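Listing S7. Sequence submitted for prediction.
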Amino acid sequence: PNLVGEVLQTAQNEMQRISGNPVYYTSSSDATGKGRRQMWDRHWKVCSQSVAPGTQVPVHGPTIDFSVVKLDETCP
């Protein structure tokens, strides 16, 4: 799904829901390039995702990475 604009926690939950795997792993990275860690997922929003919406990802396929900024910031 297209999760751009969603809160990071919501995006992660959605990936777990659609995969049917409650431990499905996604990663996230600071879209500003400052290397900030996403300690509280609910405080970040998704700017982009590494796998295009609608792409089938095999079980052992690539990890989906969400590029994120804090909720009060604008995506670069």
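Caption to Listing S7: primary sequence and predicted structure tokens for the chain studied. The helical segments are 8-19. The two ends are 21 Å apart (CA to CA).
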